[in-house]
Amino acid sequence: MSQELLDFDVIILGSGPAGLQAAVHAARAKATVAVLGRMERSSLFKAHVENYCCMDTTLKGVDILEQGQRQAEKFGARFFSMDVVSMNRDEKGRFIIALESGEVLSAWAIILAMGISRNRLNVPGEKELLGKGVSYCVECDANFFRGETVIVVGDESAACSGALHLLLVADAVHLVYSDLKVDDRLRYQVEKSGIHLHPGSKVKAIMGTDGVTGVLLEDGQVIEGRGVFIELGAKGALELATKLGISLDPATMKYIETTKKQETNVQGVYAAGDICGPPWQMAKAVGEGCVAGMEAANYAKHERSKNT
């Protein structure tokens, strides 16, 4: 039976300042808006702000974010505090996004505002074996490990959905985690799959010289494998960009390239905030979010009218 779609004009990935400002402007432009992601992942969440225009007191980042969500909801935006596990495009050009809860959303335009991933294991062997068996992107590199044993490290949706994906190509998949922080549905899928689970575990070192041979856990256990996928959060910019064919900046291949209208090279996809590169300032994120929200809303309404 096909999954019923929750239809929107614009879907925003990320609920930091860029995503919230995009939501406010898109919703005020009379677009239907969904905002995905967990607010606590924003780099602003635990920060304090004292250098933002027209604010003469120091404010807690969490207060700014919560007020931003209330403001966006007042204009009609709907929030889903969960992660994306897959994103595709249908024959009409709509983006189809599956959430870890099992809900499936569609939209004519999306805005990528997830910030950047700074999470690394910071263990011996990680840096040395990057590209030699160590990867931060399952969808990018899974096929290089067809028929091999692989290890996924992480507690959240990217690790779980990545491990499930790897079951399709790898001979064996191990998931190393402290405590799964995912929706019950995704947890059930992982626990009932053929993934070898290592709960309450942490990686002490990645083993190998010319290539990965396995990982050493803090309890002394060794898990042998040819690949280690480090997935320490939600699906990141690089993975989603790769999936959609979005161009990254050629100098670093870390950030998404946009026009002055916050457009990417893929029609219907916009980006704003830290995901577009430095400086890491709320003022920049809010400005780009404003532009992205208005542009995405106009694009989505135009596409919707063409297809109705």
UniProtKB/TrEMBL annotation:
Gene3D superfamilies referenced in this protein's UniProt entry, alphabetically: FAD/NAD(P)-binding domain
Protein name: Thioredoxin reductase
Keyword Oxidoreductase recorded: yes
PANTHER family, sorted: THIOREDOXIN REDUCTASE 1-RELATED-RELATED
Any matching Pfam family: Pyr_redox_2
Protein keywords: Flavoprotein, Oxidoreductase
Cross-referenced SUPFAM superfamilies: FAD/NAD(P)-binding domain
Single GO MF annotation: oxidoreductase activity
Domain FAD/NAD(P)-binding: 8-289
